[in-house]
Structure formats: structure tokens, C-alpha cells
Amino acid sequence: MNPYSSQAKLAAYRSVSAHGALADTHPHALVLTLLEATQERMSAARACIDQGDMRRKAGLLHSAVVLIAELRGSLDLQRGGPLAENLSNLYEYMARRLMHANLNSDATAVAEVLGLLAEVRGAWVAIGPEVRGQSSRSAMSAA
Questions:
Q1: What ranges do the domains of the chain cover?
Q2: Residue 139 burial (CB < 10 Å; 0-12/13-18/19+)?
Q3: CATH class of segment(s) 28-142
Q4: Which of 47, 77, 85, 110 is most buried, judging by how many CB atoms fall within 10 Å of its CB?
Q5: Whole-angstrom Cα distance, residue 37 to residue 25?
Q6: What is the pLDDT of residue 18?
Q7: Global pTM?
Q8: Residue ranges of the chain with per-residue pLDDT less than 70
């Protein structure tokens, strides 16, 4: 792609626009977005296994593993204590199961990880109002 073409300029604009929107997003919402994107990819990968589309399945599961690594990397193990450590171990387990699912086209393993991630997402949604309330109070006291 020619860096001066209209397509290149449009792609650059979209990238800047997307990154700018993310910069203003609350960290809780960003994690929720990662969780949901991971679920979407795994659901699509499970459908690909059922349909025999192994190339697309591989890409989707790889993407899901990368997103889980991002979730794991976002944990603050020092401040999060045992909860963060347990989540880190759970994310590592999920990534291993998805790699197994990818190698063996194992829809059951994908379903297992979907269930685990749904539990994490449910807990994350439940703490949302509390987390957002704390950050609002912090912002007000800093003003």
C-alpha cells in the first residue's frame, strides 16, 4: 500500500480514531471489552470446528489466546494478592486449553473455556458499579 494513497490515509485515520476512543475508556470497561471479544472469537471458533473450517478456527483461537494473554498481563499481582494470582493461573489454564483445542479441533475444550470465561465476566460485570464509583469519588476528591 502506497503511504500516500487515500486508503493508507483512511487506515491511519481509523487507527488514530480507535486509539483515541480507547484512551478515554474506563479501565473496567476495557477489560470487559477484552472478555467479550475473547468470548466472541471462541464461539466463532467452536462453530468453525463444527463446520470443518480449520483455517479460520486456528486464527480465531490464536486471537483468543492473545486476548487472554492481554487479560493476564493486565493483572496487578502485587496489589491484587491471591485473587490476582488465582486469576493469572486461571488465564494460563484457559490459554493451554485453547491451544489444545486448536491442535485437536476439540469443541469441548472451547466450551469449557467459554464457561470459565463467562464466570469471570459475570463477576467482572457485578463489580462494575463499585469500581466506577470508587474512581468517580477519587476524581472528585482530587479536584
A1: 28-142
A2: exposed
A3: mainly alpha
A4: 110
A5: 16
A6: 44
A7: 0.76
A8: 1-25, 131-143
